[in-house]
Amino acid sequence: MLQLLFHPRSFGAALWLRGLALAFCGLACGTAAAQSSAPPKSCPAPQRMQALSQAPITLRFVGDLVLGNSHLVENIPAEWDAMYFGQVEAYLKNTDLTLGNLEGALTNYSKTLKVTGTGRTYAFRFPPRYAKLLKDTGFTALNVANNHARDFGEQGFADTGDNLRQATIAVVGLKGQFASLQVKGLRVALVGFGFYPHQNMVQDLSAASQLVAQAKAQSDYVVVTFHGGAEGDDAVFHGNSNELFLGEDRGNAVAFSRAVIDAGADLVVGHGPHVLRAIECYQGRPIFHSLGNFVGVGGLSIRSMAAMTAIGGVQLGPKGELLGVEFLPLRFSERKVPQADEREDASHLVNWLADNAKFSGQFLRVPANDASRKALVDWAAKTVPSAKVRE
Length: 391
Known about the structure:
Purple Acid Phosphatase, chain A, domain 2; 8 helices; 9-stranded mixed sheet; disordered N terminus
């Protein structure tokens, strides 16, 4: 606290009032000037994820999970249970919290308004027993604010929530709500967003900020996860502007992510474009702009840019302080499940996107084997010709 001393014998009244005004202006205006000129807060340099973390608290995240569709669900072989996460299960289990985006319904209800069977429109439905499979794999929370959660109407959506809760998996993304978990004494809030009116919407920055601020007031650490953005190879790049896909407004990922961090979010995890995107650091807090697909059995593409995926994570101290950022590069097998990425193409892609970002910001580069970098960069530049590559 600034303490002001006044001796009337030493200063005239007018001079004292002027000095008092300047002092208070210096306190307020100087702080504003310092904030505007201060360097941006940094994030820890990312590290390659290890199956076992030595951090006090570890949170890990994946993108879109599709484990069947309306035609496949009745005929899924039992041996597939071990196939979905077989090569990555250790990374999902050895955490204190694992969150993904469940892009479909866990239900036996089979009626959908979608016209399926053409190969162009999908209704994603998974056996209810997969709730236990997801729990046993390590998932503690799943986001349902996306464009496939209601593929089987309100009945299928309600069944999904019921099945997840019975498996003690937290449901994230309900309208006007956030999930709260106790993680080793740390109060963690998970807030999910999509781009439809029946969801918390990425387009409504005011409402999003209010909900996040509410979550922060009741929590030590706030994770925001969102489903938004355009799709396809070109979608690896995005600007600080609204994205449209199939005539739908799918939000401005940059403005949304920064707004929720300003409101109190400590971490933002995106999905929806079905491809990886750059990792940003804003106000010392990480933004995984998109973690792409994670399991695509039942309809998701694994072609071209969609062939790569990853697990993202953060390491926290006991009070929620950010100790580390993790990244595990993965790619898809022919069965559309994640497997080891020996060339580390996913890491090179994320770094290439950071180097050629279409909006200004502070970006994080992840560790990668330099020997395989040029091949990926050359391929990426040819695959997305619209990119202005800076080498």
